[in-house]
Amino acid sequence: MSEVPQEEEQKKGVSRRGLIIGGGVAAAGVAGFALLNRGGGGNAAGDCVTTDLSDTEATLNMSNWPEYVDEDDGDYVSTLTTFEQETGIDVTYTPDVNDNVEFFAKVRNQLGACQPTGRDMFVLTDWMAARMIDAGWIQKLDKANIPNVDKNLISSLQGVGWDPNREYSAPWQSGFTGIAYNKSLVGEVATMDELLTRSDLKGKITLLTEMRDTMGLMLLAEGADPANFTSDQWGNALEKLSKARTDGQVRAFTGNEYVNDLAAGNIAACVAWSGDVAAAEDENLVFLPPEEGMMIWSDNMIVPVQGMHKTNAEKLIDFYYDPVQAAKLAAYVWYVCPVEGAQAEMEKIDPSLVDNPLIFPTADFLASTHNFMALSEADAAKYEQEFADVIG
Amino acid sequence: MASLQRVFGKNSAYWLIGPAAVWLAIFFLFPMLSLLTTSLSDPAGSPIYGYDLTWRLQNYFEAISDYWPYMVRSLIYAGIATLLCLVLGYVLAYAIAFKAGRWKNVMLVLVIAPFFTSFLVRTLSWKLILADNGWLVESLQWLHILGEDGRLLATPFAVVMGLTYNFLPFMILPLYTSLEKIDPRLNEAAADLYSSPWQRFTKVIWPLSIPGVVGGTLLTFIPASGDYINSDLLGNPNTQMVGNKIQTLFTDASDYPHAAALSVILMVLIVGMVLFYVRRAGTEDLL
């Protein structure tokens, strides 16, 4: 009997002390919290640039979009393998960028807190690259290490608003956003209006989760200029999108994965990026510019402040600005090649591609394409929020 | 207790609670605090420059008024999936517990077998099976069960089916454990007392299996209502569940405060429903 109270006593002790400990932890949590939760904090001063380990470590971790580089195949030696052989740098190439915003969410905590993401270089679309440069998360490239870029970057991409002298970025490829359809399932889909309203496409189309791609085309269909639109025009375009969604016309909003569904016949038509359709190597898939016009964009190689192999990254950039390699890559991925002289090299690889406007667009062709307006951080947040509310 | 004291000394309780408490403090309490403060922050901030904690309760009202349909849809889909799991799982668990004989262990292993491959891969493979031009849809169209334009993928049916498929084992295992504990002689006694098979089920088996039913439904309903993979892969924009909305708010819209508020609301709602359910089922002592 005498043991019971003792145990009782002990139980009480535990709970009392437990309470104190628990309270302490909670208090510490709340106190330490404000700090933790601040998240970002742009490092405008660029004070968290890491030391470059390229001299001692011959490695490079690169994140890129899926289906965006050539691969070894039998006798064919890919550009990446050639680079590895020539430089002895071991490249870990990860196709883990499926959507700019999604990728941003993946890395923003580390970038904001000045911690390494494990990546030395990523390839992001103009507006996202601009956003990261603004936040102070990107290192300046050393021009001396990338002479080919100075020499060979095509003139239309030389001065961009967000990086006037290309100090931080070098385009990987450019491309167009238009319409793709599977001709074994449906007839030609020539306009966005057809895509969004034709009854034989009901539940058989996908649009992109990239706001600037999908809304750019929606704005064009609305008769607006994506590079300079009013909030009324935005509202109208968004409403049209919302209606197509509620009507069940839209099957999904996707990243890069739409290609598989298009080839498998789960969807009949979609908003697509120009090179993907060609890369799928399926003769039933057709890419065409909608009658109202196409969107144009570039994806850019950038090195984060905590990228530890900047010189290696620069070697890779320089390598891909060699016209021979650039032509080889373009012949494989079918995106717009940003390298002057690649068109001449293409003659040796595949003469049929030399005059392909999707790879080497003429000035006239480029004149019919559109950019998306540069948005302030606040406007971008507002538009992205409204777009996200519509797509689900 | 006494023997434990010999091993760990007088403060054995602390030694025993300690590791779990530290674990929870780091991996549960901290994230939870982060979630709560984010949910009360000013959405005018951005993920780049951070959010200011302004104790903005409106986030909650806005999240409810803007996104309640997603919440309702989640609860409905999870509810249907849980019911389907209960019906399918009960029959199977009953069979394993009472009728499987020497196949018992084999069948249990088969129930768990799907866990050997990843959740994502299994859900993706349903995408292939249900594909618009796949054999299943084409056979069903040929049989006129589905119309010419009928499809399975990207429909509510596919989402609920995916949820049911993915969470079924979580229903079967607790049901099996409580059914297996029932003494078969109770059933025989009821039969000796002239109760019909149906009465034996409703008066003997079912009441004794209630702990398994409660455990199984909770283990199915809670994860199912927060799930977003099934809706993402098998659904369409009009079948989005609250998990999808939280995900798009975090990733696409970069609206962390509302996403956090929505997560807290979902959590509170589920805890509330669970407490109510457990009380009604009279099984508080199980928790």
UniProtKB/TrEMBL annotation, chain A:
InterPro entries: SBP, Sperm_putr-bd, TAT_signal. The keyword Membrane does not apply. The keyword Ligase does not apply. PROSITE patterns: TAT. SUPFAM superfamilies: Periplasmic binding protein-like II. Keywords: Periplasm, Signal, Transport. Pfam families: SBP_bac_8. It is found in: Periplasm. CDD domains: PBP2_PotD_PotF_like (cd13590). PANTHER family: SPERMIDINE/PUTRESCINE-BINDING PERIPLASMIC PROTEIN (PTHR30222), SPERMIDINE_PUTRESCINE-BINDING PERIPLASMIC PROTEIN (PTHR30222:SF17). This is Spermidine/putrescine ABC transporter substrate-binding protein. It comes from Demequina zhanjiangensis. The lineage of its organism: Bacteria, Bacillati, Actinomycetota, Actinomycetes, Micrococcales.
Automatic annotation (TrEMBL), chain B:
Signal peptide: none annotated. Keywords: Cell membrane, Membrane, Transmembrane, Transmembrane helix, Transport. It is a multi-pass membrane protein. Residues 71-277 form the ABC transmembrane type-1 domain. It is found in: Cell membrane. The chain crosses the membrane at residues 12-33, 75-96, 108-130, 150-176, 204-224, 259-278. It comes from the Bacteria. Belongs to the binding-protein-dependent transport system permease family. CysTW subfamily. This is ABC transporter permease. It comes from Demequina zhanjiangensis.
